[in-house]
Amino acid sequence: MRTALAIARKELSVYFTTPWAYGVFTAMAALSSFLFVNLLVEFQLRQAEARATSWEQMSPNLHAYRNLTDGVVVPLWGIVIAITLFVAPFLSMRLFAEEKRNKTFELLMTAPVKTIELVLGKYLGGLGIITATLGTTLIFPLLLSLHGHAESGTALDWTTVLLGFGGVLLWGATCMAVGLFISALTESQMLAAFLTFTVLLPWMMLTGVAQSASEPLRSVLLYLSFDAQLHEMTRGILEVKALVFFTSVIAFSLLLTHRTVEARRWA
Amino acid sequence: MKATHLGQYLGALGLMLLLSSPVTLFITSGSLTAAVVKAGLGLVLVGVYLATNLESFRQFASSQASFAFLRSALTVLVALCGLVALNYLAATKGARWDLTQGRIHSLSPQTVTALESLPEKVVAIGFLPPTHEANALLESLFQRYHEQAPERFEYQLLDPSSSPELAARFNLRAGQASVVLVRGEGLNAPHTTAASVSEQDLTNALIRLTSVGTQRVYFITGHGEWPLEKEQANAADPGATLSELRRQLLHEGYAADAMYLVGTTDIPRDASLVIIAGARAPYTEPEVEVLRKYLAGGGRMLYFTDVGLEDGLGSLLAEYGIQLDEGVAADSQFNSGNPYVLVSKFYSNHAIVKPLVQRNLNVQLPMVRSLGVLREGMAPGVRVEPMVHTSQNGWVETTPAQNAVPSDGEKAGQLTLAAAITRDTSDTPDKRFGEARLVVLGDSDLLLDSNWGHEPNRNLVMNALGWASHQVARITVRPPDREVSTLELDASAVKRMRFLATDLFPLTLMGLGIAIWLARRHK
Hints:
The complex is a heterodimer.
Chain A: H1 2-16, H2 19-52, H3 68-92, H4 94-101, H5 105-110, H6 115-135, H7 139-147, E1 148-150, H8 158-183, H9 189-204, H10 206-211, H11 217-224, H12 226-234, E2 237-239, H13 240-266
Chain B: H1 3-28, H2 32-52, H3 54-62, H4 64-93, E1 96-98, H5 109-116, E2 122-127, H6 135-148, E3 153-158, H7 164-169, E4 178-183, E5 191-194, H8 199-210, E6 215-221, H9 243-251, E7 254-260, E8 271-277, H10 285-296, E9 300-304, H11 314-319, E10 322-324, E11 328-331, E12 341-344, E13 346-347, H12 354-358, E14 363-366, E15 371-373, E16 382-389, E17 394-397, E18 416-424, E19 435-441, H13 455-468, E20 485-487, H14 491-521
Parallel strand pairs in B: 2-3, 6-7, 6-8, 8-9, 9-19
Antiparallel strand pairs in B: 2-4, 4-5, 10-15, 11-17, 12-14, 13-16, 16-18, 18-19
């Protein structure tokens, strides 16, 4: 494990000294900020409508705007999840592909490092960078808690907010695991990013497909759908099945990565 | 082109056809023939690949790498099977925890009681078009009900257009989102429809489906009581009707009708409950006698009055241990900025108010009339239980327009604002129930449409109604919601936040990155 942590540290140090990573941070911050402000404007608009009439007379679909947690933070996490789908492939693409392109992969293979340590080290490095990227979005709930008002004094339901953020992190960790596996398959970084995106996007769109399917396929597709699994978590409900599902995808991706890297030893 | 290369291309195409055939069957066309043709063609093409690349397979099979490959494939397969099994267990048996403040995604006690008291299996059918926005909400709601009572509550979601025979059976309109609850099995199984996709309506539909017969509520009219219909409202005050209360009663399975007492000698036998709400003109003696006879025979009544009203029912109330105070109940500490707008968290242990205590809900009663509890002169078997009080700083203000402080001669201390009364009628011949029930509240404004949205007050009324009509399953709090929170930003504050979030924040990150990168480069 010590070797894995050393590899992770090295990966993180490479990430944090690369302008590319900061480009990704900036893109994540700019996009999520822009959409966050739009959510705020929408929230204020709905609250003004409610003040003019009453919540009882407004559509039940708009009742989420009664509070900042449901009206702003829950949809914000939905947006961050969608942005992560685009951002994560660019962070995971270099994990193995760059080593292959720079011909350092063979060196790694001959070094006294177990494949499992190599895979875990690379993954932990990727996990660190995605956590840092997603961590920038915590600034938005903090801003809301500074400016928001509620009778009890706490404008946000922090348990829901943090559980939602946990869901976002779980999603980021899953993206990085899938990206790590695809990065191990190719030496082209752009191809790795593109393939990761191509795998994750349809996977995320399974909810839409499930809606037009009939039982029992519908239930299976909904279970396999990333966003359906995350839906409850962002609303403040912790489900064992979501934890098991994401952990399974991560574990399976790491296993595939391990076998792919190991295959280089046979070749 | 070499045959081996052509075989590889065809093999790849065949694999795609083979793997996509379930999509054809279940999602795109739904045609079994098309799916079988695709799968068959795919198999043939994969066969072509195998035949043209036989030599490569021979080489692979004889090499050391092939054993390693097979071992890897086996490991992956075993791991996959293990993970599928684990996920199946998690999906079917996995726990869930509602971590929100106030447990807003958990079923209310009312729903739990209703589910626990289901006499037989109920199937809920959600008829929604697949793209309907309420789809996920309804599924999650159904899931919670099913988890609470897996043996007695089942559900399915159907597209009305793909199940026309069921849509016709339940008289559903095209494009309409509906939830139908069916009790038992067979074509003639009783069913009911939920008014909307919410826990409130779904549970009410459950109660309605499982209750025997229809509960009928009569609103006494003819003495200036609040009207039941919006059309009967005073033009100057269109919100001053009981239409929202009536609507809620209908949703909960009650039939609600207005009733004149003049010319009658008895309350109809099908009455579960009689409500008097804000009577302004005195009842005649024969009318009072009808009510007296009704209560003495085990009847159930809710009585709401207001400050200054005189309806001639004082003697009847006195028989049930209640005297209405003359004046306005006031409280110098527990009010909403006005001593006559009382905010009360002072409840007894009565079943009607217990859920309010559990949920820490305060009722708010503006211009309420307090009640005096009598110790003697009552009818035999009467038991009075005060339910809602003011604080110890309450008093009855007899001249509210002149001063808002307690004066000499005014009743002071903890006042009673609502009371529940029972009377043992088990020995009464031809009785309706063995116990008469009466709830008295010194405010009828809380029943009006314009005030019906106040959740604690609404709960007080509906719980009283459930208790009085003996619908124990309804005595609970309506589904909770998160605490309301607001954000007050004017245009310039929004501009500042936009600048901070979309400009300064990303650029700072970028600047930080460039600085670190440059510093590292120059090391």
